[in-house]
Structures are given as structure tokens and as C-alpha cells.
Amino acid sequence: MRTSVIGCGHLGIPHAAAMAELGHEVLGVDVDQAKVDQLNAGECPIFETGLPELLARHTASGRLRFTTSIREAAGFAELHFIGVGTPIDADGRSYDTAQVYGAIRSLAPHLDRPCTIVGKSTVTVGTTAQVTALAQRLAPAGDRVDVVWNPEFLREGHAVEDTLRPDRIIAGLTTLEAEKAIRAVYAAILDTGVPLCVTDPQTAELAKGAANTFLGLKISYINAVADMCEAAGGDISEIVHILGIDPRIGSGGMRPGIGYGGGCLPKDIRAFTASARQLGADQAADLLRAAEKINESRTDVAMGLITRTLGDQPVKGARVTVWGAAFKPGTNDVRESPALALAQALQQAGATVTIHDPQAVTTAMIRNPEFDYTDDLAASLDAADLVVLATEWAEYQQADPQALVGRPTTPLLIDCRTTLDPETWRAAGWTVTQLGRPGK
Fold first, then answer.
1. Under a CB-based contact definition with an 8 Å cutoff, are residues 268 and 261 in contact?
2. Are 39 and 55 in contact (CB under 8 A)?
3. What is the C-alpha to C-alpha distance for residues 131 and 117, in angstroms, rounded to an integer?
4. So what's the pLDDT on residue 77?
5. 138, 132 in Cβ contact below 8 A?
6. pLDDT for residue 261
7. Mean pLDDT in the chain?
8. Is pLDDT at 410 greater than 80 in this prediction?
9. What angle do CA 159, 77, 132 make, to 5 degrees?
10. Each residue of 28-57: pLDDT tens digit?
11. 294 close to 260: Cβ distance less than 8 angstroms
12. For a FRET experiment, which of 105, 149, 194, 303 has its CA 20 to 30 Å from that of 180?
């Protein structure tokens, strides 16, 4: 099948490469000529596990290419994926869907034959109906243009894996022809047994917000319990294990830490909370807002632990190394990164901050040039008074604490992601503190 992917960012690039991997001919569209040239050269402008190799393979094979011409995409493809960004709006509570409507306004006037538009971007309930009306009004093909909402459930750092081997595929649609198109484009995935949930557009739109918001609730809940462990002297890791045994709960998504971030969870939870309020579901909105407040408090919780760990030494004037800049491992995305929020709080308190990250130093420097950065793990510790692990990269879990112990002035380490084996580090001479595990 010939497909286009309109919008080449954290969603569009992995989706385009994955569609090529499934055997489709794919044309990616973006307004940034420099990015298009980079992509056509097989070079990936973002880091995502497995993506550089997939992109290089299929730009070389000829299945995947990129352009700035949406007219070319309209003539080329029979199915058009919309993968543009929907950042949070100026009100801080709803999606800015200007790029979605901009893509439809640019594409539709060139659609002169039957085709299917498939929305991947996360949107407010009711958007599909409005997009359908706009596309059919502007397109020469009129009502022969179908619109499907097919929300993505990608975990950044696993976007390629989640596109090629998803847990489920959701398709919100209104016509049999649209369902046929979805079944055709995802045939290779559906043939492996992945379930296809065909529903109405408004259910599909709500499903994405509901899924991400439930994950946010789960993260906020375990962080609240971690605070209780901190106060009572309990061990959050043991509680996660105990809860995880219960098949009604499970341990997935229950890693205590300094909160969720990135380009999806924060905005999706804000928007879903706002939707609940707009729909008159006030108790639901209150519950969701409580989860947001817990997440917003995690920087303060971490700062309290840092202050207690430093003891008589004030935060002001301390030299602190932060391990991690990306909001999670496997990506160089630093949008709403809890690690950078903590670094900012440390700097505002008067600390000198040095940041290390295996992949996100460049993107972090663009967003926060005020910090010192290094991509050398050992050098990041030179003369540090305290090390704070803020992003759970495998590089930190696999580091040799014995080889690093001589670099900081005082080998104090706070594991804000509860991801290290503390006994291994303590045996090498480090003083290790973990959130929710006081004295453990």
C-alpha cells in the first residue's frame, strides 16, 4: 500500500519507518527542509531505540522517502497518516490542535480520489467529526474521503517495538471502507494475532486519554505510597513486589521516582482532566487533579531528600551531579523532564549542577543551556559533593561503582528512580539513599 505520514517528529518518524518495515511504500511529509534532507540521507534527528537502523535500512531500500510537498503526498498515497504534534494549549489544560487542522487544510484540497485519512495525534473527544467535515468540504473527492482516528499507544524509548508489535490497535471510524483500509495497512500486524478494536471515533479519542491517565494515576499512587514509606521506615520496593503479585494490579508502571514527564503523559492527563470537568464529571476530575498534584510535588520530595542527605552541608554552594536529562531512558526527549526540573530546583537553591546523559545532552543543552554538561560518566563525578540518579538509564545500572568511587569528593548517591542495587554500591564505599527506602 502507498501511504504518507504527515508530520515527522517523535511520532511520525518511527511510524513512517515501521510502515516501510511492514512492506508499504511510504512518503513522509514535514515543513522543515533541513529535517527532510537529513531524513532522506538516512540520518535520524531524534534518538529512539532501534530507529536509526530502521530508518537507514528503508531510505536505502527505496521504500521510505521524505518531502516538504503535501501536494506530492496527496498524489502518491491512498492512505494518509496524520502524526503532527498536539502540544498543550495556552490554557494549560487542553490540546492545541492547530497543526492537525493545518495538515487537513493543506492536504484536503489535493484529494481528488477516494482515500483514507488516519489520525494518529492525540486529540480532544469530538475532533474526528470536525476533521471529517472539514476534509470532505475541502476535498474535490468530497465524502469519498474517510477519516479514522487511530490513537498511538507508544512508549518513548520503545516506539519502534510498540508500532510493529503493539498490544492492540484502536480504530474509531464510521464506514466499512475505512475499516477495510485499516485492516489492509495493518494486515501484517493483525496476522500475528494483535487485536483490532473497531469502535466509533469518540470512543477511540477517549481511549487514548483514559490509558495514559490511568498510567499517570498508577505512577502518582506508588509515589504517594513511597512518601508513606519514607515517613514510616517501610520499603517501597517490597510493597511494589507485594502489590505486583496481585493479578488485578500488576507491577507494570509502578516504579517510584520523581514523577512522569515527556510529551504525552503530562499533557494527556491535563487534557483528560479538563474533559472530565467539561463533561460535568466533577468527581472524576477531582480524582485526576489529585494525581497531577502528587506528580507536581515530586521535585520538592526529591529536594527534601537531597537536603537531608547533605546533612550539615547546605545545598547552596554544593556541587551536584545529576545522572539523566531525558524524561525516561531510550530516548533523547527532554520535554517536561523530571530530571531537568530537579536540576533547575537545585540550581535555584544555589547548587552548581553538572548533568550527564547517554543520549540527551545535546537536546538538553538547547532547552537548558545554563547547566554544565558532559557525556563522560566518570568525568561527571569530578569533585562532586553529591550524585543524583534522575533517569533510569541502563548505563547507570551497569556502571562499576568501584571504578567510580574515587571521583566524587564524597561518594554520596541518591537513587531517585529506585533502580540500583544499593548493596553493590555500598560495598564499593558509596553512601546510597533511595526514595521510599530510608536506611535500606
1. no
2. yes
3. 10
4. 98
5. no
6. 93
7. 94
8. no
9. 80
10. 999 999 999 999 999 999 999 999 999 999
11. no
12. 105
Q: Nearest Cα to 367, choosing from 427, 325, 319, 305?
A: 325
Residue 438: alpha-carbon gap to chain centroid: 30
CB-based contact 235:437 (threshold 8 Å): yes
- Type of residue at 73: A
Distance CA 194, CA 37 (A): 35
Backbone angles phi, psi at 53, to 5 degrees: -70, -40
**Residue at 43: amino acid letter:** E
Asked if pLDDT for residue 318 goes beyond 60, the answer is yes
CA dihedral sign, ordered 50, 56, 57, 58: positive
CA 131/CA 139 separation, integer angstroms: 12
Catalytic residue among 8, 44, 229, 264: 264
Q: How much is the pLDDT for 438?
A: 64
Q: Which residue has the cell 502540544?
A: 87
Decide if 393 contacts 328 (C-beta within 8 A). Answer: no
Residue whose C-alpha cell reads 515530586 in the numeric block = 298
Instruction: Give the distance, in angstroms, between the CA of residue 383 and the centroid of all CA atoms in the same chain.
Output: 33
Residue 8 annotated as catalytic? no
Phi, psi of 170 (to 5 degrees): -110, 130
